[in-house]
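Take a protein:
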Amino acid sequence: NVTLRSVNGKELAIIDGIGAQESVVYVGNNQTGVEINGFTIKNGYGSASTQFSNKAIGCGILIDQYVNAKILNSNIIDNGVGSTGNFSSSSSVDSYGGGIAIMSGSFAEIDNCIIKDNLANDDAGGIWFYNGSGGGGIINNCYVVNNSNPNSNAKCIQWSGTLDLTITDNTFITTPHYQGSSCLLYTSDAADEEDS
């Protein structure tokens, strides 16, 4: 078990990835009982995941394969290839999950978080679940706003594969001047989803 918990809360506990071409927080394969609680995570670029060795995945937070994690009471802001804090929007690097990426077989609970102003050049400016066979997540009481992706579908949340995903009591906002399609939630495959 790994717990990363701030003492003074997310406004004072800032993890800034500016200048480093990797995810601000990376959780490796097969980790259980991971908790990230009470941080501002910003200016991440994305790391190679087990499934994608040549792409920038999970610019703010990358949860790699077969992980059980909680992301609580945190701000995930201004991350991504092309984000305002770090890199040029003309970058040719493929990026997925500007704020958070959750890879195959992983389960992530995301609660009471702000996921804002993140960018992915490809899928999901906000949160990306990839090929979620055996995985899934809970997204609860989050504010997901003004995330961008100029080349694909969902600005807020996108997933592929069979996924057990519960989405409750969240606010999703996007505005026309933010790049990408107007789709807030998008899936390319069948999903077992609850939405309330």
